[in-house]
Every structure is written in C-alpha cells, then in structure tokens.
Hints:
By secondary structure, the protein is mostly helical. It has a domain at about 355-520. It is about 60% helix and about 5% strand. It has helices spanning about 5-20, 30-50, 60-75, 85-90, 115-125, 130-155, 160-170, 175-180, 185-210, 230-240, 250-270, 275-300, 305, 325-345, 395-415, 420-435, 450-465, 475-500, 510-515; strands spanning about 80, 100-105, 365-375, 385-390, 505. The chain has a three-stranded antiparallel β-sheet. Strands 1-2 form a two-stranded antiparallel sheet. Helix 9 packs antiparallel against helix 10 and helix 17 packs antiparallel against helix 18 (about 475-500). The chain starts with a helix and ends in an 8-residue tail after the last helix.
Amino acid sequence: MISQGAHARTSTAAVATAAASLFAPMPSRGWRGWLGPLVVTLVGGIVRFTHLGRPDAFAFDEVYYAKDALALLRYGHEQQFDDSANELILASDGNWRTIDVFKDDPAFVVHPPFGKWVIASGEWLFGVTPFGWRFAVAVLGTLAILMTARIARRLTRSDLVGTVAGLLVALDGMHIVTSRTAVLDMVLSFTVLAAFGCLLLDRDQVRRRLSIHALGPPGPWGPRLGIRPWRCAAGVALGLACAVKWSGLWYLAAFGLLTVLWDVSLRRRLGVSQPWATTLLRSAPIAFVAMVGAALVTYVATWTGWLVTAGGWGRQWADGTDSIIPAGLRSLWHYHGEAWEFHVGLTSDHSYQSSSLSWFLQTRPTSTFWKRLEEGDPGCFADACVSGVLALGNPAIWWIGSAALLYQAWRWITRRDWRSGAVLLGILAGWVPWLLYQDRTIFTFYSVVLLPFLAMALAMTLGAMVGPPGGPSSRRRTGTLVAAAILLLVVALAWWFYPIWTGELIPYTHWTWRMWMPTWV
C-alpha cells in the first residue's frame, strides 16, 4: 500500500515533470532571431514607402479621413468641410495650421477617432499632403510585417517559418494598398495583431514562470498563475482596435475566450482535477477585468478631444440634466446610439462592394484610384495609359492560403494543435461576423485584418510540408521544392501586380493583362 507521503511525492514529481515541458525554448537567441524578420520588413518598407505620395490626389475614402484628421488637429473633433475642400487642400502648401476648409458646424461621423488621429499624426509631421496623410499608416503597415514574423516565430518556435510569414505579408497587394492609403483598416489590422502578440507573450510568460519554479501537488485548484501584464497590454490594444472600428469588439470577445481556453489547457496539463471550474472561478473574472476594463478605459480615452471641447457633434446633448454620470459621458453614449442606427441601416449600393463570402477568392477587389491618360499626355507614350490602384490581394497568398486554412483546421480537429486553433480564431473573428450582414455595404479590403493570420497559416503549412529536421531526406527535399515554388510564385505575382498596387502609370493594354477576372474591373 502506497503511503500518503509517497503519493504526495509522486504527484509533486509528476507536476514538476509537466511544468518543465510547458515552455519550449526559442529557436535562437540574439540577432539570429531578428535577422530574417528585419530583412523582410525592409523589403516591405521599401515597397510601401517608394512613391508614397502617388497618386497625388485623394484615393477612395481619403476624401473623408484625411480631412477628418485635419479637423482633429484643428478642433479636437470632426468638422463639416466646404464642397471645394479637396481642391483647396491639394493646392495649398500643406500647413495644417493655416488650411481653412471647414464650415462652422461639427460633423456627425460614425467611426471612432483613433484611426483618424493616427492619420493626423502624419499630417502634423509632414503636412496635409498625400504623403503626409499616408505616412503614419505606412509606418504601421511596415511594422506589421515585423510583428507578424516575430509572432509566427514565437508561435512555431521556428525562425524560418516566422520569416516566411513576414515575407507573405510584405508581398501581399491588399496589405500594400491599405498601407499606402489613409484609410482605417490598416490601423485596425495593426492593433488586432498587436493584441494577439501580447496574448502570446502572456501565454509564454506564464508557462515559463511555472517551468522554473518548484510546484507542489496540483490539488483541485492548481498553482496561481501570477501577475499578467501582457493581458492588460492586449486589452489596451483591443481598446484601440475598437476605437478604430467597432468590429474590434469581435476580436475582444474572441481573444478573451482564447486566453481563457489557454488557461484551461495549462491547468489540465498540470493535472488540476477541475480545470474548467478552476479557470472560470479563478482566471476568467480577472481576465475580464484586465482585458475588457483596459479596453474600455482606452476606448474612452481616445475620445478625449471630443470630451474636453464643446463644439463636437452632440457634445452638449446631456448638458443641463441631473445625473451622477458626467454629462459628457452621457452625451457620448447618445452619440454612439445615433452611430449604431446609421450602421445598421447602411444599405446603399456601391460599384465595388463585395460579399464577405467572396473575400478569400478575391473576386471583387476595390479600386481606390483610377486615372486614364491619352497619347501625348505627360508621361504617356502609348495609345492610352492608366494610373490605377486596385486593392487586390496577392492571388498566390489568398488562394493557396485558403487551402492552408483547411489543413490547419484539420490539424486542430485531429491533433488539437493549439497553434492552428489560435490562427483559425484570428481568421474567424474577422470574417464570420460579416456573414451576418449580407445586405450591408462592405468591401473586400476589410479582410486585410485577416491577412497576418492567413500568412501565418500558410507559413505553418509550408513548414509542415518541408517536415521536421531529421525527417526522411526524400520527403524534406520534395517538400522544400514545393514550398520554394510557392514562394517564388508569390514573389513573381508581387512583381507582376506591383504597378496596379501603387498607381504606376502603365499602358492601358498592360492594365488589361492584369485583369484576370471580369469582376476585377
């Protein structure tokens, strides 16, 4: 008969063994882990910043966001602008302090202010010019390449897989176009990706902490998981995501669920007898406060310009009424109610709107700029020339990546690979909600928030295709050749479509060569 002391020693040893296996070491240390990500980031940065001021005009929704950003600099809130504002801005010297294109009345806008504050930072640095209002967005788009590479590296413990994931983001056309255009979706994508990275760091931090400390028998509750600052950081990032577009709320819910599921899995591996109950009672409430609380405070803070001034739309709605809640916050709540009514009723048609069902096939990309020149016009040496920008994803990434998602789903279902599940959740949180709004006016470039997760899924699949070190040489040779062929195809298509991603002036016939589907025009 085993004594109680011997049983305790056995349980302690089992827990110590389980804890020691929780944290896998990183594949390299120092500069080796940064070299590949920095190289692909440099490539992506060159693509994004070269001729960033082209086209020298307002592209797509820049006609709203560039001027809203200027209004934030001038007033702290959005303001109505004159009908001739576009021409006046393009003809000005770009000085945001002296450009006067606004009416006396505030503007009612339906997106929160943070994304426009990002655009405003570029205008503050470089003036209200195409380069100025695109600069800060291009910075975030470039940093997203580095973040994707480092996140994928941490996720897979592979320098090569991380670098490949970063390269895929660097060479994707939709990511390039939205990085070179002053719209909100790149800011949203960046903040969502940052939140995912923070939660991954939190997961590693907890497991590393438990792997190096001696643990006693698990019992019904298991060990405490300690202070979790990266969870709070994820909440801040998700608050900023919601302050760009309200679709960030779906990621707040999804990532909150993800971090709780990771805690359940951790306690199960440690031998906790009731991992679900323990997590729901001990971790979930703290996770809710850390993430939702941080997100809420961050979100409200982004409205500071509207709250501390008196001229914003609806700012004085609650003034003169008695309540323990400040009038400014009640007016802000009323503003959100009006914005919600606008969003749910938005059904106006647009020539480039697309169903979310078509996003992965890229059948209806968004044209953000189009200008046709005739022979003899400056720079045109053909019968007709075109300078156009089409927010088209790299077909190799999106089409092959969609197949990679099916493979990752198979890995999660059959092997419960947590990495596959995490990447798939990042895809589903940004795609499934839009399936509920088939009557809404939506565009394919909204899916840029999915691109980093799609790139990770494809990079992980290519890594699985090559196989682990020490595997059969014939399998690794074949897998390497196929993976290399796919990457070469990605590079080739990036070269082919680059002119229509960046507004380069090309002969009209060259433009038609690149219109592979009739729905792309």
